[in-house]
Amino acid sequence: MMKRLKILGIVLIAVFALGAMASAPAFGAIEVLNKNHEKINSGLKASGHTATTTKLEILEGFAETKCPEVLYEGEQTSARLGVFHLHWHKCTTSLGGTCTGLGDETGLVLALGTAHLVEDKLTSEGTLGAAALILVEPTHYACKVGFVTTLINVSGEVLCLVSPLTLTLTGKIKCEQGAKVGDPGETVYWNEAGTKVEMGENGLLASENGGTAKMAAEVGEGEGELNQEAELMD
Fold first, then answer.
1. Residues in Cβ contact with 207 at an 8 Å cutoff, skipping those fewer than 6 apart
2. Residue 155, SS3?
3. Per-domain residue ranges for the chain?
4. Burial zone of 62 (CB within 10 Å; 0-12 exposed, 13-18 middle, 19+ buried)
5. pTM of the shown model
6. Residue 46 confidence (pLDDT) above 50
7. Is 27 helix (H, G, I), strand (E, B) or coil?
């Protein structure tokens, strides 16, 4: 069965070590194709911005980090892998104040990472789709609310859905919240071998002021442009 899906986050956001695995029927590995239906193995680039305020939620954390604008750039480095740069702008918290990355200008948080293209079950539709499995490199920033400064450390994996679309020059990616704040909406995917992977402790983790790392979730939607028309085939 062939599925054409819009790509965007595949070359921008981040990757992931494989967590606990359970056997599952093999599904065809997703491939990136150009308009001539030729496989794209590298060089696909994407740039864009978020369509909604992006939030970092920490389970039982002191507050949400909120950034109304996130700019990104990414490039495909192999058939299903890419690297990215994220620029989180005008960041604050749900309690107010300002959040700034260590060494960055006020209100700016810079992040780097890699992203794998994987298959993901769309829970709302009950069908398999595409997702970007994002591995965020350790990111450190401080949020100052009044006279109180809280240091946040974030690292781990995020699984974000890539919207189904035909051949396109644009794309969308969506990172969802689960049942409660700090709970990621997507935690299961299928790797290239068709093996079901449950992220578990490999998921996104965040700590405050050097304390115990807790489960965290990134919530938001992004859209952007590709440097050439592309589609995904399953």
1. 152, 153, 213, 214
2. strand
3. 9-226
4. middle
5. 0.78
6. yes
7. coil
